[in-house]
Design brief:
By secondary structure, the chain is α/β, with parallel strands linked by helices. The chain has a single domain (7-217), classed as Rossmann fold. The chain has nine helices and seven strands. The chain has helices spanning 7-16, 21-32, 42-54, 69-75, 92-101, 103-107, 118-125, 143-153, 182-197; strands spanning 59-63, 84-89, 111-115, 131-136, 154-163, 201-206, 212-217. A seven-stranded mixed β-sheet has the order 3-2-1-4-5-7-6, with helices on both faces. It is globular, with a radius of gyration of 16 Å. The mean pLDDT is 96. It binds S-adenosylmethionine. Residues 1, 38-40, 64-66, 69-70, 88-91, 94, 117-118, 137-139, 142 line the site of S-adenosylmethionine.
């Protein structure tokens, strides 16, 4: 989600260069839905991909597909053997747009879009685990539930990554233009606290525009 744009992002994006045509199509599709600003920026998608690469992630769950931008970050050019990305999306409209963008990866079995409420769908997905990486970018009010599921279903040494963990400053009480409700703020605050109080997790923040939380499950 992009709201504040530090100048450093312009500089980094200039060096990162143009995104792939598929990513550009994902952004155009999100724009058409009026949701162009909630996909990961190219800097953030690069961070997500680096975390997947550095952890040699094969089995990945993403919560919040939108039009497939962040799924593409995980899939494009990824040559890890046995790669599979399950991406969960509640909106049939978003899932339909993403299925066009991710068509190549869906047809060769490296990607599956799971349509429905993530909290319900995650329970049945557990049988395909344990997973190497879980990326949380769905309903903010459900972040704590997603996180607890991820802690149970990530392998020892695996990663949990969550985006928007600052909620534009709402987690520390700054008023924001975006209206986050108490349920959303409470869920994200509790998740952040748990990430640093659970002794079985080694956690750190990446201070991106919206804040990214990364947790490694120790055992
Ligand atoms: C911030 S967007 C995801 C952006 C995407 N990861 C990207 O970078 O392109 C959040 C998505 O989560 C979906 N979503 C919201 N509530 C959900 C739920 N309960 N279960 C699954 N998906 C949900 C929204 O429809 C939206 O498409």
């Amino acid at each position: 989600m992009r709201k504040v744009r530090p100048k450093s992002y312009d500089y980094m994006e200039m060096l990162i260069g143009a995104e792939s045509s598929a990513k550009q199509a994902a952004r155009a599709a999100a724009d058409q839905l009026g949701l162009g600003l909630i996909s990961l920026s190219s800097v953030e998608s690069g961070v997500l991909r680096a975390l997947a690469d550095l952890s040699n992630a094969k089995k990945i769950v993403e919560i919040g597909t939108l039009t497939g931008l962040s799924a593409l970050a995980l899939l494009e050019g990824n040559t890890v053997a046995g790669l599979k990305v399950w991406t969960l999306e509640k909106s049939p409209e978003h899932a339909a747009a993403a299925s066009k963008i991710l068509e190549t990866f869906i047809s060769d079995g490296r990607c599956e879009i799971v349509v429905g409420d993530a909290r319900e769908k995650l329970e049945s997905l557990s049988t395909s685990g344990p997973f190497d990486l879980v990326f949380i970018d769905g309903n903010k009010a459900a972040y704590l539930d997603y996180f607890n599921w991820a802690v149970r279903n990530v392998r020892a040494g695996g990663l949990i990554v969550a985006d928007n963990v600052f909620l534009s400053g709402a987690v520390w009480g700054d008023p924001t233009e975006q209206k986050f409700n108490e349920k959303q703020i409470g869920a994200v605050r509790k998740m952040n606290e748990l990430a640093f109080s659970d002794k079985n997790l080694k956690s750190f923040f990446i201070p991106t525009e919206e804040g990214m939380l990364v947790c490694k499950k120790l055992s």
